[in-house]
Write a structure and sequence with these properties.
This protein is an alpha/beta fold and 333 residues long. It has eleven helices and seven strands.
Length: 333
């Protein structure tokens, strides 16, 4: 469905705007008027055709009423309101689906991201032909309890993904239209959009040093638990990107290896017992040997892993997305 939407927009390229700015928000009523005014000033100064898509992620402070008021003054403003809080990933995913521009830029609504960075990000996508540019807040105004875990988080992500960015979780990012129409952001995967893009075949991923501003209104919505959840999400993306369409290649290999180890242990115990019997020596009881239980456990684990791979294959084959692939170009079709 996402590829079909992208093809339709490609055919209507003349109707596409220059920039879509997707802004997820939760209880940011105070900052929205100032943010909208700042964005409009930058857009008009650079003569961009633009749209601002605010996604209200279940706010209860009157943020939606503020968005409605702003849209009456600025026809470039669009709004989407969730009935309840679904999270930043859900907000970004629906914002990407609704966007209609050559370049899509995401930013937070708390004024910690500067709209003055937009022209440089736009030029990186259009002129330098990047697929994705991630902001790097080189100088941050965060407490040490947040900066140290963030550095560890970014280090682990770089090592596992092979994408050498300094700040994966920066909300200020720029994407080509093709990227946002070919990836799906769900759960809490917004932290790993560069990894999702890479797994979909988009390799021109870079970064741009951006200004980090101190929060002016409200309070942060994130806690330390996001780093634990973030690491688990990274494992999920790594596994799905590598084995999502072929789970047996993971579970089957390790299951077979585990079963073979257990089987070899069982053969060793059997041969040892036969040797003792042939020599007319007292043969030790099999159950008295600790290695017997090791072999038994590894054979059971191996069987379970193999069955998990088999079930994974059945699920994968019945999935509606089993034959969905990211296509960059078509010729004479």
């Amino acid at each position: 469905m996402s590829q079909k939407l992208y093809n339709i927009q490609s055919e209507l390229g003349t109707q596409m705007k220059d920039i879509s700015i997707v802004i997820p928000l939760l209880n940011e009523k105070e900052s929205l008027p100032e943010l909208e005014e700042w964005i409009a000033k930058v857009m008009n100064a650079n003569h961009y055709a633009y749209e601002i898509i605010f996604i209200d992620d279940g706010s209860n402070d009157g943020s939606w009423e503020t968005i409605q008021s702003l849209s009456e003054k600025n026809s470039n403003i669009k709004g989407i309101r969730f009935r309840r809080n679904y999270g930043k990933s859900a907000a970004l995913n629906i914002g990407f689906a609704e966007s209609n521009a050559k370049v899509v830029i995401t930013m937070d609504a708390d004024l910690q991201d500067s709209p003055d960075e937009i022209p440089a990000l736009y030029n990186k996508i259009i002129n330098d032909q990047y697929d994705l540019i991630s902001g790097w807040k080189k100088k941050r105004y965060d407490p040490i309890t947040k900066t140290i875990p963030t550095k560890l988080f970014n280090w682990a992500t770089r090592k596992m993904s092979g994408i050498y960015l300094h700040d994966f979780n920066c909300g200020l990012k720029a994407y080509s239209n093709e990227v946002v129409k070919n990836i799906e952001v769900y759960g809490e995967m917004h932290r790993y959009i560069p990894v999702l893009a890479k797994s979909s075949g988009f390799k021109r991923i870079g970064e741009q040093v951006v200004e980090h501003r101190a929060r002016k209104y409200g309070t942060t919505k994130f806690g330390l638990d996001r780093f634990v959840n973030g690491f688990l999400d990274l494992l999920t993306i790594f596994f799905m990107g590598k084995f999502g369409k072929k789970p047996m290649h993971f579970f089957g290999v390790y299951g077979l290896l585990s079963f073979i180890i257990g089987f070899c242990i069982a053969v060793y115990i059997l041969v040892d017992k036969l040797v003792h019997l042939m020599r007319h020596e007292p043969a030790p009881l099999v159950a008295d040997s600790p290695i017997f239980y090791l072999g038994l456990v590894t054979m059971i684990i191996g069987t379970q892993l193999f069955l998990a791979g088999f079930l994974g294959e059945l699920i994968s084959r019945s999935s509606g997305e089993r034959n969905q692939y990211s296509v960059s170009e078509k010729l004479n079709l």
